[in-house]
Design brief:
The structure holds two protein chains of two kinds.
Chain A lengths: L5 H4 L3 E2 L9 E6 L6 H12 L3 H14 L1 E7 L1 H13 L3 E6 L2
Parallel strand pairs in A: 1-3
Antiparallel strand pairs in A: 2-3, 2-4
Helix pairs in contact in A: 2-3
Chain B lengths: L1 E3 L7 E5 L1 H9 L4 H4 L15 H30 L3 E2 L10 E4 L5 H19 L3 H5 L9 H21 L10
Antiparallel strand pairs in B: 1-2, 2-4, 3-4
Classes of the chains: A alpha+beta, B alpha+beta.
């Protein structure tokens, strides 16, 4: 499996409108119970990523304990957290500093 | 127990030992009732913001609970099709089950909920979960660990089935 590289993962998916500042991060946290293959599947379903990108974020969660999977406006970030909770991943919303 | 990913996209389990068939049936149990002390893991807070937490409890969590209930009822309905196979001489009868491809997500979520609740209730560590020791049937904890690992096996099988390719590769 391809290992995550910090360079790639420092740039989470964003949907920034012209003139709107990035303000909220969707963070997925490590959990010893969720299968790695399951987490990869969830990332692909929720964010529509290809396998490589989904696995990079999954590995970042696994090795670093967390991964920022999306950044942008609050409403959409809340929706993503809700979707991730629907798959029982440990996901939180964090305001960017 | 044999898993066939099914060329037509229908995952099939055959030769299921009666004990494992019972564990399969238990997959449709409500984790809030089965593991009340572990069910807190099923509704994690969305973050540190107090207002958001309250909003989440009032609006999102009831919706999530309904969603998990719907997924569980799909699994319960599929489990009604657990079929006893003809037994060969001297062996206990085994069971078989087909899971419609369209129901894979409901199964993955339902199995995950029960695994998480059981793991939380018994405080299983990552090390315990990844150990390949023979199951300990002499304690409730040992049985719960076997249940968590058995459901993980079913999840892995479903993720290998055509149409769930996102799950391959671990």
């Amino acid at each position: 499996m391809t290992m995550a590289t910090p360079d790639l993962l420092e740039s989470p998916e964003t949907e920034l409108l012209e003139g709107v500042a990035r303000s909220w991060n969707v963070v997925v946290h490590n959990d010893p119970v969720n299968l790695m293959s399951y987490v990869t599947m969830v990332f692909r379903k929720v964010f529509g990523w290809n396998r490589e990108r989904a696995e990079q974020h999954m590995m970042e969660v696994h090795h670093k304990g967390r991964s920022i999977v999306w950044s942008g406006e609050r409403e959409k970030a809340e929706l993503y957290v809700q979707q991730l909770h629907g798959f029982l991943l440990l996901a939180t919303l964090e305001k960017t500093s | 127990m044999i898993f066939d990913p099914g060329n037509d996209g229908t995952p099939r389990f055959t030769g299921i030992h009666p004990l494992l068939a019972e564990l399969m049936r238990a997959a449709a149990l409500d984790p809030w009732e089965r593991c009340p002390s572990g069910s807190s893991r099923l509704m994690p807070p969305p973050g540190d913001d107090e207002e958001l937490r309250h909003d989440w409890e009032d609006h999102v969590q009831p919706e999530l609970r309904r969603h998990f209930g719907k997924e569980r009822s799909v699994v319960a309905s599929d489990l009604e099709a657990l079929k006893q196979e003809p037994s060969s001489k001297g062996n206990s009868a085994t069971w078989s089950l087909e899971i419609p491809r369209a129901h894979s997500e409901a199964w993955l979520t339902t199995l995950n909920a029960l695994r998480l609740a059981l793991a939380e209730e018994h405080g299983f560590t990552e090390k315990e979960l990844s150990r390949n020791d023979a199951p300990d049937f002499s304690s409730e904890r040992g049985l719960a660990l076997m249940q968590v690992n058995f459901y993980a096996f079913i999840q892995e099988c479903l993720l290998l089935a055509p149409g769930e390719r996102g799950g391959e590769g671990v």
